[in-house]
Amino acid sequence: MRKQIITFLLALSASLVSYGQVGSATEGLFGVSPKREVRAIWLTTISGLDWPRQKAIDAAGIRRQQQELCDILDQLKAARFNTVMLQTRVRSTVIYPSLIEPWDDCLTGRVGRNPGYDPLLFAINECHRRGMELHAWVVAIPGHNFKNASALGARSMNRRVPNLCLKTDQNWILNPGEPGTADYLASICEEIVNNYDVDGIHLDYIRYPEKEIKYNDAATFRKYGNGKRLSQWRADNVTNCVRRVHQTVKMLKPWVRLSCSPIGKYSDLPRQSARGWNARDAVHQDAQAWLREGIMDMLVPMMYFQGQNFYPFLYDWQQSSCDRIIVPGLGVYMMQERNWPLSVIEQECAVTRMSGTQGQAFFRSRFVTEDKKGFYNYLRTGFYSLPALTPALTWESNTSPASPTGLYMTQTSDGIRLSWDRLSNGLRANIYRSHSWPVNTGDATNMFYTYLTENAITVTSSLPQSMQPYYVLTIIDRYGNESEPVAFNAPQRTAETLCKGTIRMENGRLLVPVDNKAEYLVFEDMQGRTALSMRYTTGPDLGRLSPGAYTVRAIYKKEKGHRLGTLLWRPK
Predict the structure, then answer these.
(1) Rounded distance, CA 549 to CA 160, Å?
(2) Angle 179-195/230-252 helices, nearest 10 degrees?
(3) At residue 14, does pLDDT exceed 70?
(4) In angstroms, rounded to a whole number, what is the distance separating the alpha carbons of residues 474 and 439?
(5) Are 464 and 411 in contact, with CB atoms under 8 Å apart?
(6) pLDDT at 492
(7) Residue 311 region, left (φ>0) first, then alpha (ψ -120 to 50), else beta?
């Protein structure tokens, strides 16, 4: 069965190429957007690669730096991203006021310098305001380069915790073999989770260095190896770090999602070699074991490959998920650095959705927001054309919150105001709308607003309240569990049909004006889609028309259609 599915994925990717315009094929085959899907972006701060480009050295610089981030988040929101992984711990330096580690130089241009505000707090508030999660991206093992270590002096990691550090040929790193390293990493995550309303902790580089980086942990192995094989000892050390972080985070706030980004190939497969670069054997990162043990909520494997180096390994991650969340990380930067065609990433997006994994993550932000080869537009107008909620952490909690209360729908000069009782304890609101009753909250096409923190919105509309679509509200908790829906405007028990324009109702039948030139009568829903079309008649049969609000048009042979009026159709 495994061989058959891998063969199918490879054949599918090849067939997508044959379409010529892969975007059209993708939309046709995978156009049904799931209600729940992680749509994540890595937002890199090291050297200001994604943010910040502006330095915060005075009040004006702070404002420019903040505005720059808001502009990025606005673009991500417009493309319906729901998760931002913000690089928070960079290289044993951080972008928030810490009692453990010094400031990174990306903010001010000088390592250890305070930018004059709290960038992490600002980013969290701005993400939540836009209905997006913020996951604090923690680069775990790498530390200062030698230049920054010298500039920081006594504040550098190698001076503060020298017993936990190893010197490589490139920089300082934390030594996973030292038992205190797990506690040190846990303390950093504890500081973030304690002090900030983050939605997740995302561990990056939670592994040993690759073979190209020279380091010597022989003394540590002699001290703590206890007769184990070197490779097993190293893997156990990394797992112990993950385990300690998991214990710490979940003890404080069990709804915070713990994720990591392992190497994109876990190990060699029976019919496909990883070519010497995999998570388990090359860098001692036994990520699938972390899923089995339950110490990882979500894996975001860095799958910056294509073809046979991508699809078999994608299925391997999905097959080994242990019912946790697998979100393949896709290398959009390859469209610039390796000149990949747009079609490669489009195919990978499509197949990840079809394969049963639970979303996509993109490395990195600038290569998306700058619309490299049209990819941002592909997401915004096609692949992410509808919003999505993130998957629920049902293994932490599967209890639905209480349904919302105090719902009101009122007509205003701007449209329709929807309000409800104020929420607390991290609860947020989702609004669904439909022209059919009951509103199907399992259908992503009915999602209207997601993750609202306020308790009222105004919907711009020229229709009176009596002709509005149906609106319902749900409550979602920090684990992602959703309440039963409550309606703002449930239909009345009796039949109700309202007309506006030259059409009218008489004895339960719709009457339209006589027009000998009209050929067709068309009923369009509020999205402009044709719901019913027939030969023009003054007494049309509406038996096939679903309940909802419609624009009624007369269509002529050589002329544009003529609007006859608006119909709110609510039969018994």
Answers:
(1) 67
(2) 20
(3) no
(4) 12
(5) yes
(6) 59
(7) alpha
Helix H or strand E segment including 416? strand 415-419
Residue 333, C-beta contacts closer than 8 angstroms, at least 6 positions apart:
304, 363, 364, 367
pLDDT tens per residue, range 372-415: 999 999 999 999 999 999 999 999 999 999 999 999 999 988 89
Dihedral sign of CA atoms 46, 50, 55, 61 in order: negative
Assess contact for 76 and 113: CB atoms under 8 A: no
Instruction: Tell me what the pLDDT averaged over the chain comes to.
Output: 91
Helix (H) or strand (E) holding 28: helix 22-30
85-99 tens-digit pLDDT? 999 999 999 999 999
From 47, 221, 49, select the one nearest 145 (Cα to Cα). 47
Sign for the pseudo-dihedral over CA of 259, 263, 266, 272: positive
Considering only the C-alpha atoms of the chain, give the largest distance between any 2 of them, rounded to a whole number of Å: 97
Q: How far apart are CA 8 and CA 489, in angstroms?
A: 47
| Six token digits for residue 199 | 């939605």
Altogether, the residues listed in the chain come to a count of 572
Q: Which two tokens stand for residue 417?
A: 């105001």
512 contacts 505 by C-beta, under 8 angstroms: no
Q: Is 408 helix (H, G, I), strand (E, B) or coil?
A: strand
Cβ contact 282:211 at 8 Å: yes
From CA 452, how far away is CA 455, in angstroms rounded?
8
Q: The pTM is what?
A: 0.84
Beta bridge partners of 433: 471
Residue of 368, 366, 331 whose CA lies nearest to 352: 331
Cβ-proximal residues to 148 (8 Å cutoff; 6+ apart), any chain? 91, 93, 105, 111, 156
| 27-37 per-residue burial string, b: 16 or more CB within 10 A, e: under 16 | bebbeebebbb
Alpha-carbon gap, residue 176 to 239, rounded angstroms: 9
Helices and strands (H, E) in the chain, number of each type? 16, 27
The helix (run of H) or strand (run of E) holding residue 59 is helix 59-78
Q: Please state, in angstroms and rounded to a whole number, the distance separating the CA atoms of residues 291 and 238.
A: 14
Distance CA 43, CA 46 (A): 10
CB contact at 8 A, 26 and 383 = yes
Separation CA 297–CA 457 (nearest Å): 33
Using alpha carbons, select from 35, 126, 41 the residue that is nearest to residue 389: 35
Distance CA 25, CA 12 (A): 11
CB atoms within 10 A of CB 559: 10
Task: Name the 3-class secondary structure at 337.
Answer: helix
